């Protein structure tokens, strides 16, 4: 584990930028707002009062597209580009509708408990394809008493689906976001899945050594980090799987076509 800690200390400027995407998103909005404000002031001085409804809408769209452009130039992940575009629109809409502070707080807390950890983990919520569990069941059809970890289990759909068909497997899901974890935990209790365990927290604090299979559906920006953990902790003969996202510079042992649309499950035999 010491080797992993050392690797995280020596961060390049580009990796620091990737590590704190919220600062980048804030910078995007500040820059675009300054440009739009300057544009409005200049327009008012030379062309008169600009904040009539039509021109305000044009200014708002200009703000959104400018935010998107700056976010693209800073090479943000795609979901931050989407946020950069819609953020000015949603703020303006909220002010126009005069949403109560109580309702605003409820909306904020809901979004925070679902997506808040994305700010630090850089891993947004990705629902996996419905046929993924079928492919895993086919691949491990001859395995008994398999111990599988879903690193970033979300709402727990994959683990629950697997538990139906293979009650002899021990299935663990770990999820850092509170609401998805609570949903999956309650779901497993209601369905009385005895072979399922959902943990609240980060996969970084779990020891991969005790698992026969570690499955991940995370994000391209964290694949190199989880690969270091996989190499350090997983035992020979175990299997690491990543859905859709490969590890740069580490060719998989083989690939599994999951859906007709081209989704790939990358498999590494340790």
UniProtKB/TrEMBL annotation:
Q: Where are the transmembrane segments?
A: 21-43, 49-71, 78-99, 105-125
Keywords, in A-Z order = Membrane, Methyltransferase, S-adenosyl-L-methionine, Transferase, Transmembrane, Transmembrane helix
Which residues are in coiled coils? none
Gene3D superfamilies for the chain: Vaccinia Virus protein VP39
Name its GO BP terms in alphabetical order. methylation
Q: Is Transferase given among the entry's keywords?
A: yes
User: What domain of life does the native source organism fall in?
Assistant: Bacteria
Q: Which GO terms describe its molecular function?
A: methyltransferase activity
On whether Repeat is a keyword of this UniProt record, the answer is: no
Q: Which InterPro entries match?
A: FAM173A/B, SAM-dependent_MTases_sf
Q: What is this protein called?
A: Class I SAM-dependent methyltransferase
């Amino acid at each position: 584990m010491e080797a992993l800690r050392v690797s995280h200390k020596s961060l390049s400027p580009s990796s620091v930028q990737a590590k704190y995407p919220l600062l980048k998103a804030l910078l995007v909005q500040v820059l675009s707002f300054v440009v739009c404000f300057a544009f409005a002031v200049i327009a008012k001085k030379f062309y008169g009062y600009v904040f009539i409804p039509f021109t305000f809408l044009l200014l708002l769209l200009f703000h959104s597209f400018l935010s998107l452009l700056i976010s693209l130039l800073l090479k943000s992940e795609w979901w931050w580009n989407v946020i950069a575009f819609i953020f000015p629109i949603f703020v303006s809409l909220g002010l126009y509708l005069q949403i109560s502070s109580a309702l605003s707080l409820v909306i904020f807390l809901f979004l925070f408990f679902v997506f808040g950890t994305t700010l630090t983990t850089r891993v947004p919520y990705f629902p996996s394809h419905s046929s993924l569990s079928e492919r895993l069941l086919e691949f491990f059809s001859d395995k008994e008493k398999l111990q599988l970890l879903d690193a970033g289990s979300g709402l727990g759909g994959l683990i629950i689906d697997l538990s139906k068909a293979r009650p002899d497997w021990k299935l663990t899901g770990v999820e850092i976001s509170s609401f998805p974890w609570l949903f999956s935990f309650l779901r497993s209790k209601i369905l009385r899945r005895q072979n399922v365990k959902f943990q609240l927290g980060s996969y970084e604090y779990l020891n991969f050594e005790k698992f026969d299979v570690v499955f991940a559906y995370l994000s391209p920006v964290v694949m190199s980090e989880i690969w270091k953990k996989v190499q350090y902790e997983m035992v020979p003969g175990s299997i690491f799987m990543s859905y859709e996202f490969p590890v740069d510079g580490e060719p998989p042992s083989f690939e599994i076509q999951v859906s007709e649309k081209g989704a790939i499950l990358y498999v590494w035999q340790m």
